[in-house]
Amino acid sequence: MGRDPPSAPEPRIPQTAGSGCRKKKLDTPGSISDSGQRSGTRIQRGTAQTGQPDPRSNTQQGNCVDWYATLSHPDNRTRQRLKHLIHKPRRPRQPTLNLILLDSSGSTLHQQNLQQSLGVVEGLVNASYQHRHRTAIIQFGNQQVHTLLPPGRPPKRILPLLRNLPAGGGTPLRNALTTGLQLLTREARKRPGESQHLYLISDCKSLDSIADLKAHIPITLIDTESGPVRLNRGALLAQQLGARHLHIKQLSDWSEA
C-alpha cells in the first residue's frame, strides 16, 4: 500500500492593520510626508538662501515655493533629497479706498437699470472685501446726495443695505461728484499712503456741467444707459473727468471694473 502524497501547505492569511501588523510606508525619493520631511530628511521651511532659518519667516515668507531659489541653493544642488525649501516673500498689500457713486435717480428705474447697477455695486464691494480694501458708497438721486456707507472695511454682505434703497427724482451728478471728491480729499489727509479709486455708476443722462471738476485719481465710469433712445453722454462725461468709460454690457465679470 503506497503512501499518500504530501498535502500542500496552507496559504498564509495576511494580517490586517487591526491585528497588530502595521503597513510599511514606501520610501519614495520624491515624496514629502505630512510632517514636512522628505524620506527622513527634514525640510526647513522658511529658510533663507544662507541655509539659516529666518525667525521672521511667519510674516515675511509666503505660501508659494520659490523653486528657482530652492533648486539653486548650495545644499540642494546635489542629487540627494532637498534640504531647504525656500518660499517667495509676501507682497505687502497696498492700502486702497474705493469710492462708489451710485445713481438712483428716476431714469434708472427704466429697463431695470437700477437692478443692474446694484449688481455692479455688489461685485465691487465683494472684491474690496476679499482684497481688504476700504470702501465708501454715496447714493445720489431725487436731487439729494446721501452717504450710504462711510469709509471703512466693507461688510461681508452688502445686499441688505441695498434692498431698501430709495430711487426716483432728478440726478444731482455735479453735487455727488463734489461730495465724493471732498470725501476723498479728507481721507487722503488722514491716510497719505492710501491709494484711491472712484467708481461712478450712472446712466449719464444728467445735464450737469462737470468740465471744471478736476480729480487726480483713477476714475471708472460704468455707463448703465439702455433702451431704444439714448443720449450717449457717457463717453463725453468720461472725457471731461479723465475717466475710463465702460458700458455695463461690456462687463462679463465685475472684477473687470
Structure, described:
This protein has 257 residues and is α/β, with parallel strands linked by helices. The protein folds into two domains: 37-92, no CATH class; 96-256, Rossmann fold, CATH 3.40.50. Helices cover 23% and strands 23% of the residues. The protein is built from six helices and twelve strands. A six-stranded mixed sheet has the order 9-8-7-10-11-12, sandwiched between helices. The protein has a two-stranded antiparallel ribbon with strand order 1-2. Strand 1 (37-38) and strand 2 form a beta hairpin. The model is unreliable at 10-61 (pLDDT under 50).
In CATH terms, what is the fold-level topology of the largest domain?
Rossmann fold
Structural class: alpha/beta
Beta-strand residue percentage: 15-25%
Shape: elongated
Radius of gyration of CA atoms, rounded to a whole number: 31 Å
What is the count of structural domains?
A: 2
Distance between the ends: 99 Å
The pLDDT mean sits at: 77
The H-level CATH homologous superfamily of the largest domain, spelled out, is: von Willebrand factor, type A domain
Task: Tell me the total number of β-strands.
Answer: 12
What's the SSE pattern? EEEHEHEEEHEEHHEEHE
Do you know the CATH architecture of the largest domain? Answer: 3-Layer(aba) Sandwich
The CATH C-level name of the largest domain is Alpha Beta
The count of helical stretches stands at 6
